[in-house]
Amino acid sequence: MALQVDALTFQTDVLALQVDALTFQTDVLALQVDALTFQTDVLALQVDALTFQTDAITKP
Predict the structure, then answer these.
(1) Containing H/E element for 28?
(2) What is the pLDDT of residues 37-48, one digit of tens each?
(3) What is the pTM of this model?
């Protein structure tokens, strides 16, 4: 019976580690989404700057 309790405790610990790993992966994914959003915002600003420069060159 004691071995069965130890086995159950071990399985519970492993499950807890798997939950921690999934939480970590979710956090990493959220950071990657934030980074992609930031890169998209930077790209939009670069497009705006290019449009401004183009307008400055082409308009009298």
Answers:
(1) helix 2-58
(2) 999 999 999 999
(3) 0.71
